[in-house]
Amino acid sequence: MIKGDIFFNLAVRSVRINFLRSMLAAIGIVIGVVAISSMGMLGTNMQLEVKDQLSASANTIVITPDVVRLGPTGFVPGSSSSSSTGIDKDDLAKITMATGSNGTVIPIYSTNTEFTINSVAGRGSVYGLNPLDIPKFLSLNQSYGNGTTDIGAGEVLVGAEIAQNFNLKVGTRIRIGSFNSASRPELRIAGVLQPRGTVADGVSTDNGIVVNNNWYTNQYGGEDEWSQVNVIVNDVDNISDIESMISAKVNTNEKTPVIRIRDATSQLATETSALSTVTTFIMAIGGISLLVAAVSIFNVMMMSVSERIQEIGILLSIGTEKGEVRRMFLYEAFILGLLGAGVGGACSLAIGYTVVEAMIGTTAYFFEPASILYVPAAMLIGVVVCVISGMYPAWRASNMDPIDAIRSEE
């Protein structure tokens, strides 16, 4: 056993005698392990949260106009200034026909605008929806008061962030339009929507307002020119087939497609790739601290060799193998790495948990295998870095001439 190895005991003795110096060197390993594992866990938790949120709309196909031509006054979503600002009535009919009984088709108007609540201005998205379509993919948060999704022309639904930031409740009045505009319609808040987070269906209601589709077209124009059309499929396994049928029905000319079709799968791949790149970059920065630690460990090991030249000479002169001398110093490097990695691993759990909670707002995915795996991985890297740093000092010690080593002065 390694514990009964005399050379391991000599390595432990050396670390104990120079405990303060050894611990200062190990601190670099602690910092490196904490940096790599914490940043890795943060990135993984972000990916898992995004994946979970996007999976909630995995059964939704999002259809948007492929080309938007600017009208004489520029593009305003929902505006009638251009005949190509959205999906028209004929295209909607084709989409509905292609979907058939395999899903639910929901046409959506949208734009961005300013709004005012209790003389405080804000800005967000406005979505025009048929009240009958709202319950099909949106739900209410009744903690703000008993609301309803059956909104009339003078009623709206607001997102969770707006409700929280403005301390709203059902019945509060909201004015939609520029704060400097003389005529801004006032509407009653009929309900507050549940938070949705990152979604793939193109309807980000957390900082948005949902209005009756008739009110929307009266206010912004562009009747029967929808900004997008969502198709909620009954069976997610059929989503590719439905997309193909819709494309074949609407995009009859491959050179000039009318619509673009996407779903959660493509957005999830994009989001995951971006987050993975950011996570890798941050972890690489954290890995720099391990390089600094490696230099520190190398310096400590070289000092240990220099201080124990006579001891090494005696060991070699009584027949100790060079490999055994090397092993003694590699043991010392291993012990330093193990101490640093152990403390770093424990700190990583506490610091990583705090970082994830502060940056993401939830630790629901913290103890998932994909997240927690970064702790032992970072600890292993820390130990390996220490052992590699001790290789040259160990080699130098084992190749000393025993006579010259014994004659040397301390």
Automatic annotation (TrEMBL):
Major subcellular site: membrane
Domain MacB-like periplasmic core per the UniProt entry, residue ranges: 22-246
Domain ABC3 transporter permease C-terminal: 284-402
Keywords, sorted A to Z: Cell membrane, Membrane, Transmembrane, Transmembrane helix
Record's bilayer topology term: Multi-pass membrane protein
Sequence similarity: Belongs to the ABC-4 integral membrane protein family.
Cell membrane listed as a keyword: yes
Pfam families: FtsX, MacB_PCD
Presence of keyword Cell membrane: yes
InterPro entries named among the record's database cross-references: ABC3_permease_C, MacB_PCD, Macrolide_Exporter_MacB
Signal peptide start and end residues: none
Example of a GO cellular component annotation carried by this entry: plasma membrane
PANTHER family: ABC TRANSPORTER PERMEASE YTRF, MEMBRANE COMPONENT OF TRANSPORTER-RELATED
Name assigned to this protein: ABC3 transporter permease protein domain-containing protein
Recorded GO MF terms: transmembrane transporter activity
Compartment list: Cell membrane
Segments crossing the lipid bilayer: 23-43, 281-301, 329-351, 371-392
